[in-house]
Amino acid sequence: MTRKEQKEERKKAILMTALTLFVKRGYHETKISDIAEAVPMSTGLMFHYFESKEELLLELVKMGAASTGAIGKIGDIPPQIFFTEFLKRLFEYSANEPWVFNMFVLMGQARRAGMPEEARNIALSTATIDETATIIKKGQEADIFREGDAKLLSICFWATVQGIMEEMALNEEMKAPDPEWIVSMLRK
């Protein structure tokens, strides 16, 4: 392994460790020394990779925001199939990559008041709710989804997914629910 690859591996280890600690302890309660100890590395070396805890948070929130872009790419897939398949893939991927559960939790936390403003703005800038509302409107026009405010239905859909992901982050034994259960709340 080259030095560059080693450095990237170390950076990834720092990010994943910080993600876990931010979710389990909270951002404000986690110290940079806690992250360094858990990696393990010296706190001084940690600052070689990230200048501050806030910089670490920003990097994680940017990763989370970048991964939200997939929802808008529906193409010609019927909306109910799109949501069912999206959730199946999300739950399968998360089961293989448990950090995804933590990322959902962190992104929820980052949107709250009291978090560093730049991270909060990035977390709030994702267009997932609006993109999902557009897909729900397609389903309403096709007489598949229930009538009502598509944006509110989108918020309810994502609040449900967020809650499931948070529970799965806290309880590693929990199995993912059938995606149809979640999609059924949108159906007529």
Supply the number of structural domains. Answer: 2
Low-confidence stretches: none
Structural class: mainly alpha
Helix content: 55-70%
Report the average pLDDT across residues.
Answer: 92
SSE arrangement, N to C: HHHHHHHHHH
Biggest pleated-sheet summary: none
Q: What is the CATH-assigned architecture of the largest domain?
A: Orthogonal Bundle
Total number of beta strands: 0
The CATH topology of the largest domain corresponds to Tetracycline Repressor, domain 2
CATH class of the largest domain: Mainly Alpha
**Range of strand content:** under 5%
User: Radius of gyration from the CA trace?
Assistant: 18 Å
Notes on the protein architecture:
This protein is an all-alpha fold and 188 residues long. It has two domains: 3-59, Arc Repressor Mutant, subunit A (Orthogonal Bundle); 62-183, Tetracycline Repressor, domain 2 (Orthogonal Bundle). Helix content is 69%, strand content 0%. The protein contains ten helices and no strands. The radius of gyration is 18 Å and the shape is elongated.
